[in-house]
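Put briefly, the fold is written as integer tokens. The lines below illustrate.
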Amino acid sequence: MIEGNSFQSKIKKKIIVLSGKGGVGKSTVSTNLAVGLSQKGFQVGLLDIDIHGPNIPNMLGIQSFLSLANNQEISPIVALDNLKVMSIGFFTGEVDIPIIWRGPLKHKIIEKFLKDVDWGELDYLIVDSPPGTGDEIISIVQLLNKVDGAVIVATPQNVALADVRRSVRFCLELKIPILGIIENMSGFVCPRCGEVVEIFKTGGAEKLAQEYKVPFLGKIPMDPKIVSSGDDGKPIMIYYPDSAPAKAFSEIISKIVESIKV
């Protein structure tokens, strides 16, 4: 078991991925950011702290069961050569078992995922958080002591942007550096011709970034390949590298690496 905060000395940069509301593709973003960073040769950890809706194992096509024995060091699941993963989804045994926990127990398991997991040497730890600014996010900020940056995921709708404002204010109040805002589901990639069509309005997240004077990382268009890759556990960065979303992710990752160098 890793004592105290010694595990943090092995992690160079810690990034949390936030969204003001559910259904904006936050886990898809977290997964492909982690995969993309690992493809660049970085040692990456992906920590899923969405206790009630852990999607990361499904996104990566991982079917593993781990034990939560007391005072036992846990080995993370190795998803790729440079990518280690941890999620409550590895401990439930069945995907449809609900986690009926209150704040203190959620805090305890997140602490265990940090201190009792043998993450090893990491360049980046990507934390996929649940929507909103509740117990899990407060716990991870406290336990990490220092968060090096936050990536906020938005969609173009006004109601979603209102929730993004809360995430931005959350980061500002806790003095968490905002690496930038991503506008997900921004336009639709035609499966026949590949053209990106703006079936909904776009640009709201970019304007919001300008309003708060934080970076705008880019737009990720909707693409049927994203849905199929997520359902099949095949990250789009690996299986569809020439797709419009994968290229958008690559540009976003380059911006993140530039702004938060290890």
The first helix runs from residue 26 to 39.
